[in-house]
Every structure is written in C-alpha cells, then in structure tokens.
User: Which sequence fits this backbone?
C-alpha cells in the first residue's frame, strides 16, 4: 500500500518533469524549424515511419525465430561443450560496429531492403541468443529433475517447464535486441533500405536541423515505445508465480 | 511389491560401483527406508527405480513385472516422485502443480479438479484458499505438503520419496511426518523413502535398509535394527542412544497399565479417604460414569471433607493419548515434573496410566536379558 503511494507520487513528479521538457523541446524545435517541416510534409514522414517500423518488425521477427531456437539448442545436453565457444564468437561479432555489418552485407547482397534486413537480423541476434541461453541454463536443476521424475518427455519439459521459467530473461533479450534494432534501422538508408534514416542522413548532409529532427524524433519515440510495449508484454506473458522487480 | 535383484550402478569413468549388487524386497503397502551417510548410494538406488539413473546391471520388478523393457516415460508417470528440495514449478499454481501428472495422463478437467480438492483436503489445506496460489506464496511446510500431494496426484501404487521432509524445521517436520503416516495408514502405498535421519527412519519405516559405500549392510524392521544391530557399523550408525530411540517406536498403549484403580465422583469422600489410608495410596484417579476422567484426589484434599469426591477432585494438568509414542509421553512427564501420566482417549475416557518405572523397564527390556519385564511391576494394578 505504502509502496504504491510512493510510486504514484514519484510518477507524478516525473510526469511534471516530462511535461516541462516537452514544452521546452517544443519551443526549441519551433526555432529549429522542425515543427514547420513536419506540418509541411506529414505524408512523407509517415511513409518513412511505416517503412522503418516494417524494417524493425521483420528483422526482429526473424532474429527471434532464429535466436530463441539457437538458445534452446545451445542448452541441450549434447551442445553444452560448444556453448561457451559459440557465445564467445558471437560476442566478438557483436563488437563489429553496426555500420560495418551493413557495409559487409552490402558487398555480398547489393543494395536494397533485403540487405538492410539481413544486417539487422545479424546484429539483433546476439542479445536474444545470449539471454535465451542464460535463461534456460539458469533454471533450478531441481525442478527439471522433478519434471523428469514425473514422466515428462524432453519436449514437454521444454515447453511446460523450461521456457515458461526462462521467459522473463528471454523477453528481456528480445527487448534489448528490438530497441537496438530501431536505432540501427536508421542506417539502412545507406544501403537503400529506406526508413527514417532517410530524413536523418539527408538532414545532416544539408545541415538542416528541422529536416534531421523530423527523422530523429520519431525514431527515438519508436524506440521508447518498443521498450515500453515489450516490457508490458513481459507482464502478460510471464507467470505471476515468477516475481521480478517490475 | 518392489523387488530389486542384484542392482548395480557404476558411473561412467568410475571403477567403484555407486550401488553394488543390492537386492531387497519391499512389501506391498510398506514404507522401506533407505538410509546411510551421504554418498552411500541411497539416492542413486532410489533413482534407479524410476530410471532417472540408468541401471548398469540387475533387475527391478514391481508386482512381479520386470521394468526393464518398460517405456521409461510411462514408468515414471506410474510412480509418485517427491524430492527434498520439493521442486514445485514456480510458474504454476498449486492446482497446476498437482495436476502435472494427471495432465500428462490425459485426465479431463472435472476429474483433475475433484482430485486436487480431495488431495488438498487430505493434507489439511483449504482448496478454496490454496488452489490458485503460487509456490512463492506458500510456507516451507505448505510447499512440502503440496510436493507430497503432487506425487500422489495420479494415485500411483508406488512412491519414491527423497528426504521429502528434509528441508523443514524440526517441529514442522514432526507434524508432517505424523500427517503423512496417517495418510499412509489409509492409502497403503508401497514407498521407498530416502533419509539420513535415523529418527525419521525409525519413526516412518516398516523396514530399514542401511547402506554403506553402495552395499546393503542390514535390512530389517526398525525394532530389529535397534535391538539386534548386525555389526559394529550398524551399532555406530544407529547410535549409542539406540535404547532411547525405541521410545519412538513404542506407543503409550504398549507400556501403560490398563484398568488402574479409581473412584467415582459419586463416592463419599470419607469412605474413599479411609480406603486410601488403608491401602497406602497417596493419589487416586476420579472418573465420572462411563469412565470419563475427571481428575484426581489426594489424601490432604479429602481429609475433613464431607460430601462426594467429585466436589474436591482436581483436573489433571496433563494427559497423553494411548496412540502417542513413549518419547512424547516421557517428554511430558519431564516437562511437568510428574512421575505418572494418565492416558485418555479422544473422548476423555480413561485408558490407563503410565509411570516412569514402567517406562524405563519397557525401554530396557530387550537389553536386560535376565528379567526386568515391565509386566511384573504393574501386576495387580497397584501402581499408585
């Protein structure tokens, strides 16, 4: 009870801070010509925004559908020996700057959306695999023993016990990956993939702050929204029996 | 009935067997305790029965049926499994946890729901309150109860229990053990029960198998193990106080003197006083019609009193039940500093009396081969 009160009070404080900042940002952006530009070209921004969202959703979906099974595979008994090796190699790959990944992908796949999506998938894979492995490997072995002792088949153990218990950590990985993806997707403009990067890079090239902000602000907003939305999803998907500080 | 024939387990990469050619039979409806110090192979032996540990050699039969060709998954579903760390699934509610095996077996919803209510009632937990709780919302004792209920969910005839009460404080452990024994009395499961606690073994077991370094040292009833330890190892294991441990085994009804002298509440005080002085009795039990215990009177209370005994009788400060074990009774006698304790049943009907002398001789009986039979002391009921 007491805790709820304090949360709502701090919540109100931050709400006020946010409103103040929004107000100041409004004045500032008006000066830079951001609002003027946005009002003049709503369709163009909308089209690029949709493109950006598409890039993020498609690449994240592919990352998840590759990353989670990879994580599952790496935690099966027969792969345990190679697990650390593979994770280390993936970790090294992740240190390659995103721009370089896109550039490398371009040399092989040419220009276009496909290249952009490929690069985004590769770049978004590691957090998902790493968290899937961490989540699945971190399950208390006692409950696995209990499940096995009660006669669960390996697949039943995986879907009824392992995944539900690892879900929180897996979803955190997905959230990290997706949010990173929103930012990296801006670079896909460089290989002709479209998206809000179009406005950002053109704005920088033309030294037009209004133009650039028209791309940067929606990108940032999308990242914040994705973070919030997947966070919400964690609340829906993860069992109430598993308590974490939400 | 479970028959283990020359069961051997050698872990890969090891030359010393973890379980070395162990043969033992567990009778139907009995609790067989596997006991020994850690690393003696007791848990491994138990886990070989539901093949969580693959068998190196030997056979296991349940009710005469060889388990070797049986499908492991099916086998495990037909055997209840409860473990020390409980292993409740944290993401599932109590209901979901209990119905894990029924669900695997494809029971319908209604049957599962009825079964959960039945089990929760059996372990003294209100279904309305606990069905939808998560394990994190349960106390240790409650979680342990649910663990046992889960093992029983599909009503398996055979159960494996690996220190199921090990992780609980001693007071709650006693409570759970008593509860479990009551349930077992009704359900008569065939149970293989692993523990390292000799007290628990003596209390719970119909038979105890003592293991050391993978070998079966002695397989006997608790009574036999305590009174006729096979060798020095067994003697050391059961402990120097094994005489005291027999107190756990014996019931008040085994040692009490039945039909003690007493008077009725309706008797005249003067008459009773006369009799007490004549027979040199310091105390006398007082019962109402129907043998219901009212209390006691002593000579001082009756002296000079005119009327009936019922007016001056004082209630007993402590009583025991015939079904309690002697350890509890002795503990009460020591706590209240009394030499005699009265046994009454649940309805308050006088059953007998127990005094410290009989208690000592009962426990010492098997060690003193030259007499000292407790029956002599209480002959004629002139114990007061």
Assistant:
């Amino acid at each position: 009870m007491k805790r709820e009160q304090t949360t709502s009070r701090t919540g109100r404080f931050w709400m006020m801070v946010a409103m103040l900042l929004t107000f100041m940002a409004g004045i500032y952006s008006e000066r830079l010509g951001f609002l003027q530009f946005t009002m003049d070209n709503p369709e163009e921004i909308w089209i690029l925004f949709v493109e950006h969202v598409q890039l993020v959703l498609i690449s994240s979906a592919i990352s998840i559908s590759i990353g989670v099974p990879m994580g599952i595979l790496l935690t099966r008994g027969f792969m345990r020996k190679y697990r650390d090796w593979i994770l280390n190699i993936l970790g090294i790959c992740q240190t390659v700057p995103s721009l370089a990944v896109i550039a490398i992908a371009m040399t092989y796949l040419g220009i276009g959306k496909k290249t952009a999506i490929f690069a985004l998938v590769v770049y978004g894979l590691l957090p998902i695999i790493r968290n899937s492995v961490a989540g699945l490997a971190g399950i208390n072995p006692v409950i696995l023993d209990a499940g096995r002792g009660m006669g669960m088949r390996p697949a039943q153990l995986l879907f009824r016990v392992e995944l539900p218990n690892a879900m929180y950590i897996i979803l955190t990985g997905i959230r990290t990956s997706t949010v990173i993806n929103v930012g990296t997707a801006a670079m896909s403009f460089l290989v002709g993939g479209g998206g809000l990067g179009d406005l950002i890079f053109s704005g920088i090239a033309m030294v037009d702050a209004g133009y650039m902000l028209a791309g940067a602000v929606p990108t940032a907003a999308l990242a914040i929204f994705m973070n919030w939305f997947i966070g919400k999803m964690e609340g829906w998907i993860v069992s109430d029996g598993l308590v974490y500080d939400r | 009935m479970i028959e283990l024939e020359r069961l051997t387990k050698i872990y890969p990469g090891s030359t010393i067997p973890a379980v070395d050619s162990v043969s033992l039979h567990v009778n139907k409806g009995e609790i067989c305790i596997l006991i020994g110090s850690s690393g003696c192979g007791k848990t491994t032996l138990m886990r070989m029965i539901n093949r969580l540990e693959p068998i190196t050699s030997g056979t296991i039969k349940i009710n005469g049926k060889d388990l070797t060709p049986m499908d492991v998954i099916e086998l495990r579903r037909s055997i209840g499994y409860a473990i020390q760390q409980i292993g409740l699934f944290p993401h599932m509610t109590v209901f979901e946890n209990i119905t894990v095996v029924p669900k695997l077996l494809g029971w319908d919803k209604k049957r599962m729901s009825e079964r959960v209510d039945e089990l929760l009632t059996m372990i003294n937990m209100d279904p309305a309150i606990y069905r939808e709780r998560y394990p994190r919302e349960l106390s240790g004792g409650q979680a342990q109860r649910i663990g046992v209920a889960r093992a029983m969910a599909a009503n398996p005839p055979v159960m494996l229990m690996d220190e199921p009460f090990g992780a609980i404080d001693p007071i709650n452990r006693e409570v759970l053990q008593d509860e479990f024994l009551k349930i077992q009395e009704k359900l008569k499961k065939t149970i293989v029960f692993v523990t390292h606690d000799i007290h628990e073994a003596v209390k719970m077991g119909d038979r105890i198998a003592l293991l050391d370094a993978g070998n079966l040292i002695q397989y006997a009833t608790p009574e036999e193990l305590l009174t006729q330890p096979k060798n020095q190892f067994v003697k050391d294991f059961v402990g120097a106080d094994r005489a005291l441990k027999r107190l756990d085994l014996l019931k008040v009804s085994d040692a009490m003197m039945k039909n003690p002298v007493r008077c009725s509440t309706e008797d005249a005080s003067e008459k009773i006083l006369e009799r007490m002085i004549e027979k040199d009795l310091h105390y006398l039990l007082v019962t109402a019609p129907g043998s219901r215990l009212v209390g006691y009177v002593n000579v001082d209370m009756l002296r000079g009193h005119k009327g009936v005994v019922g007016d001056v009788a004082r209630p007993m400060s402590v009583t025991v039940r015939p079904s309690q074990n002697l350890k509890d009774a002795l503990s009460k006698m020591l706590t209240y500093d009394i030499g005699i304790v009265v046994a009454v049943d649940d309805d308050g009907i006088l059953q007998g009396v127990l005094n410290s002398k009989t208690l000592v001789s009962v426990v010492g009986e098997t060690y003193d081969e030259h007499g000292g039979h407790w029956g002599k002391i209480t002959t004629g009921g002139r114990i007061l």
In short: The CA atoms of residues 162 and 193 of chain A lie 38 Å apart. The mean pLDDT of chain A is 84. The first helix of chain A runs from residue 2 to 32.
